[in-house]
Design goal:
Blueprint: H1 2-13, H2 29-48, H3 50-55, H4 60-75, H5 95-98, E1 99-101, E2 108-110, H6 118-147
Antiparallel strand pairs: 1-2
Helix pairs in contact: 2-4, 2-6
């Protein structure tokens, strides 16, 4: 009972969203948006939905929110960084050679040397494909969360 009263008071006085899945390092805004939306879901599932499920019938949207919560807290954290791969035995292109001066002042352009570093580029392309799949999955889950957000009421 004390926890419910405490939460009620905090919910009326605190408006700051603490995103527990991000650290203090720089993060692109699209990633912050994803983490903020799912932090709201986590807060809802862990702190707010207790009374709703006891009083009202559980809907399809409630089940979807529960599955999104499970995906965010259990499945997604198990992802590995696709660029955290070993280049052992592969001729790696020095970073300085990846870029060359552009005709535009102060800019550099990316110039892949494909033949000389074929294996290296194959590894990078595979990692990039995995990252693209991660981003697509994140986008699908975020859209699903937004579609069912109306079920997050107390």
């Amino acid at each position: 009972m004390f926890e419910r009263v405490k939460f009620f008071i905090q919910s009326k006085t605190k408006r700051k969203l603490v995103i527990t899945t991000l650290n203090n390092q720089y993060c692109d805004r699209d990633e912050v948006l994803l983490h903020a939306a799912f932090q709201i879901l986590v807060n809802y599932i862990e702190k707010e939905s207790f009374g709703k499920k006891q009083i009202f019938e559980v809907t399809e949207s409630d089940r979807i929110l529960d599955s999104l919560y499970s995906w965010w807290t259990e499945i997604r954290p198990q992802r590995t960084d696709p660029f955290d791969v070993s280049f052992e035995g592969v001729k790696k292109l020095p970073f300085e050679e990846m870029w060359e001066p552009s005709d535009r002042k102060g800019l550099m352009t990316f110039t892949p040397k494909t033949e000389e570093y074929k294996e290296y580029w194959a590894i990078l392309h595979k990692a990039s494909d995995i990252e693209d799949n991660y981003l697509k999955e994140d986008q699908e889950k975020l859209e699903l969360l937004i579609e069912h957000r109306r079920a997050m009421w107390v």
